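User: Teach me something about this protein's shape.
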Amino acid sequence: IFEKTVGKYNRWNNTCLEDLQHTYQLLGKSGQALVYSKELLNNYLQMFGKHSVEYLYQLAVVAWQYSEAEQIEQACQKAEETLGLLNGMTVKLDETTLYNIYDVLYVCFHELRQYEKSLDILKKMEPIVRGEKIHASVLAYMASAYCSLYDFRNARIYCDQAYKENVLSRGLFFYYYLWNIYFQLNEKDTALKVLYEAKNKFREYDQDIRNQVNVLSALGETFYSEGDYVSALKYYEDALSLAIKYNDKFDIKQNFIIGSISKVYRDMGYFEKSLTYAERCIDGYRMTNGIRSGSYSLALALKADILQKMEDKDSSMSVRMLSLEILRKIYGFSD
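Assistant: First, the predicted structure itself:
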């Protein structure tokens, strides 16, 4: 309607595009979010130019959404382009804008597994928010980056510091993020403590369904890692029920949980049930990420493993070869 009445390049149309990209991202539909993000990027280019704040921030968003959609080459290209433009800016950006751009770039580089670059970005973010409530989140991000670089000493220092800061203002995502770090540090008792604290806040954050699902799924993963399959299954199924109730049928997080349930049944020896969930996981990733994604490949590998345990070796090999072929095409493996 806006395009027909007032034209394409205006703030009303841009607002619609922003809302569409945000909504599809919340629904876990990265591919569709990316369509609207790229259109918004082009609008900003036409309206404000390549060296504008609007274009710069949206370029970072597009880079991140390419990484979410597992389009690695395009994500790297856009992220590097954003950094280049940011470093070449002649106008000084206000701290809020600068932080927002750094925040998106950090997530992008982290998902691209370029952890040293993500840590460099965080070191620029940290002084901007020192003394603010959000400072604890940046410390948690730094702990995660150090974890990924296998620097567990610094990871522990920053994680503990983040946990102590802003006790009253922690949202569910903050707890979930800290759980992930303590889990990587193999401090399972502390990881569970963080999750139980988060679970006790569900009523306070009753609208934050996505992170309630994350917390329940994390409880499942923690118990699974300890070999407590009954507890793991309970929390995974609770997470899946909540995710399905409040979201679309095909969602990236749902796919992960379905795959996790498949693994639990596999390890319990219920191979038929495990295979059923693996097939659901494959179908889900086909819809959300496409057949040329790492997630789809890993779901196929899970199916191959289950078929192997069911002694269907020919089918297992066929599925496994398909999984490997997808990885070769994505990452350029030669063998």
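Now, about its shape. The CA atoms of residues 64 and 107 lie 7 Å apart. The chain has a mean pLDDT of 87. If you'd like, I can walk through any region in more detail.
User: That's plenty for now, thanks!
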